[in-house]
Design goal:
about 400 residues; 6-stranded parallel β-sheet; Rossmann fold; 13 strands
Length: about 400
């Protein structure tokens, strides 16, 4: 069976930048068919050496670098910058996550490219955006998650705010960048347009975009959302409970009819039928008593028993999974969330990339490959260089 054409096939993306936000944007675009040429320094993207490394390359990079063509250029050299500029002139999209102003200093800013490539969609990812008094500050995910409001509400009251054990700000920014690029490409395709534009993504703004009703609640009612541990402020009950097998379950029983079924299943029909708890406003008042009852019930049964009991009465409930749990779960398997690639003859599972499209789905064509593995293909095929020119670049250290 022939594979379907993906939505971004025929588009060329130049990925410039390192670590996570820019590269994950490139991963999303490559997964859905774009030709992504990743420009790396001769030493490679640092993430190639992070965490679990096998055969000189991190396992993480095998996922992050999938479907990308790796080209090495030393952008600190005039020759490297000149070649990068020529690549950008052929591109539909550029993704960069350098500090604001660096691309301009290299002669590759959006205004500098407008005449050479008026259709270019220029996606820029930084900690604080391209404008404003903080734009020059370094902005890693850890810092911008705090500045964007997420860290303040995440954790236990009266304790230090908790960070998730992932670089969430980077990943959320990458998803925003991919969305912005898609919107800009739609605009460019209109008959009266044909022009590219700048997509300006700030990590802190991407985190801020997750803040739901926090702004209007503060402005309209003077309420500051505080950290709430394992619960969600103003919605009862929704919490995490420990079972007698040491495992945790998450129960979401905040719908009025769901609450009745939940408490009846937990042996607390008195609460299920109590008019004072019939709606969310009343349950907020009695939150401590409800959580105490559910906590005691869960503590006296296994997680499997709790889940089975509540699923029978259609109450949202589920386990808290580690990656080991995910890998053997039939729902994950049925939805195809793990794809297999080969690294030197050895299989490796990497995650599928969402969203899921039924007519033109994305896919992994190859894992992240060695640094500069597409140098010849790109330098010859895209830029038209010959053996002598490539040899000179190699001798000068421009391509490593």
């Amino acid at each position: 069976m022939s594979q379907s054409e993906r939505p971004l096939e025929g588009l060329r993306v130049i990925e410039m930048g390192q670590l996570l936000a820019g590269p994950f944007t490139g991963t999303i675009l490559a997964y859905f068919g774009a030709e992504v040429i990743k420009v790396e320094p001769p030493g490679g993207d640092p993430i190639r050496g992070w965490r679990e490394v096998r055969d000189g390359t991190s396992l993480w990079y095998r996922s992050l670098g999938r479907n990308k063509k790796s080209v090495t250029l030393d952008l600190k050299t005039e020759q490297g910058r000149a070649l990068a500029l020529r690549l950008l002139e052929t591109a539909d999209v550029v993704v960069e996550n350098f500090r604001p102003g660096l691309m301009e200093s290299w002669g590759m800013g959006p205004e500098q490219l407008k005449e050479r490539n008026p259709g270019l969609v220029y996606a820029r990812i930084s900690g604080y955006g391209q404008t404003g008094p903080y734009s020059i500050k370094p902005g890693y995910a850890s810092v911008t998650e705090g500045f964007g409001g997420f860290r303040y509400i995440n954790g236990e009251p009266d304790k230090a705010p908790v960070r998730p054990n992932i670089s969430m700000g980077d990943t959320v920014a990458a998803i925003h960048a991919a969305l912005g690029i898609a919107l800009a490409l739609i605009q460019r395709a209109r008959p009266d347009s044909g022009k590219g534009q700048v997509v300006d993504v700030a990590l802190y703004e991407s985190v801020f975009n997750l803040m739901e009703g926090i702004v209007p609640e503060y402005d309209g009612a003077g309420v500051v959302r505080e950290p709430s541990g394992t619960t969600v402020t103003g919605i009862v009950p929704t919490n995490t409970y420990r079972c007698d097998d040491g495992k945790y379950v998450v129960i979401g029983g905040n719908g009025d009819s769901i609450f009745k079924r939940l408490m009846a299943a937990a042996g607390r029909s008195d609460m299920a039928e109590d008019p004072a708890m019939a709606n969310n406003a009343g349950r907020i008042i009695h939150e401590a008593a409800i959580d105490e009852a559910l906590g005691a019930w869960c503590a006296s049964h296994s997680s499997v028993h709790i889940i089975n009991t509540l699923e029978e009465v259609r109450v949202p409930v589920g386990p808290i999974y580690s990656v080991a749990d995910m890998m053997v779960d039939p729902q994950y398997q049925a939805r195809g969330l793990f794809e297999s690639v080969e690294i030197d003859g050895k299989p490796l599972k990497i995650p599928a990339i969402m969203p899921r499209l039924d007519a033109s789905p994305g896919r992994t064509d190859w894992p992240g490959l060695a640094i500069g593995s597409h140098n010849d293909e790109v330098l010859r095929g895209v830029l038209g260089l010959d053996d002598e020119q490539i040899g000179q670049l190699r001798a000068a250290g421009v391509i490593g």
